[in-house]
Amino acid sequence: MYSRIVCAIDGSDLSNKALNQAFVLASRLGAELIAVTVTDPSVIIAPGADMMMVDMSSVIADLDKAKAQGAKQILDEAARLAEEAGIPLTTLYVPGLPAAEGIIKCANERGADLIVMGSHGRRGLGRLLLGSQASEVLAHADIPVLVVK
After folding, report:
1. Looking at residue 51, what is its pLDDT?
2. How far apart are CA 63 and CA 127, in angstroms?
């Protein structure tokens, strides 16, 4: 049925729940499992920026470094959980892209035939809608997407 599964994770409880579902699927189907975490591009928006010139490259580099460290922690935890569950897992960090774009890019580049991801936390009126990234992946992915809530 599915031979290569990409599971999008961000360290939240909901993404861990999605990862557990991906473990079950990969185990039962004998599928390859890839956990991916994506971080947005680092940008700084300052009012009146057109009035002054400030080199923000070191600030952006520090932001990128912090994001990479956070991604490493998320992926290391996923690898630890996979090892405990006896599930082979490949981890991948995609920096500098919106989450949905990075998830789809990973799935396409890795030849995945299923994406597994969490919906999002539900509060107030948001409980009626999927999270924006899950909605984007559903709208633009060319392969099936399992949304875990």
Report:
1. 57
2. 31
